[in-house]
Fold this protein.
Amino acid sequence: MLQENVLSRQELEQAISGFMLELGVPAHLRGYQYLRSAVEMCTEDMELVGSVTKLLYPDLAKMYRTTDQKIERAIRNAIEVSWERGNSDLFERLFGYCNSNEYSRPTNSEYIATVADYIRLTYGLI
């Protein structure tokens, strides 16, 4: 029988934060907080990945008392910065391509889904 691995909310936040820092997302950006919350919400409910603009961004906007558009833009900026400055080998392992190739960065939803899925698989949160 498989034993389900249960992380506390703090442990989950620490795992996501550590991985995002490893990816190169600077913690001082506003999008870092939004992205961490988005990944955390998606690790708990992967259905949100399919409805980023309809469910995820509005939920984050309520949580942070801002607009969906500001959430989307800040997350996009954080991803762009990590894509340009981050760990190329890790990006290649996760996304199948890296920032040194001619590929453009992953979309917000691709990035969130991939990181959330990685956290779920790594910590047995399936």
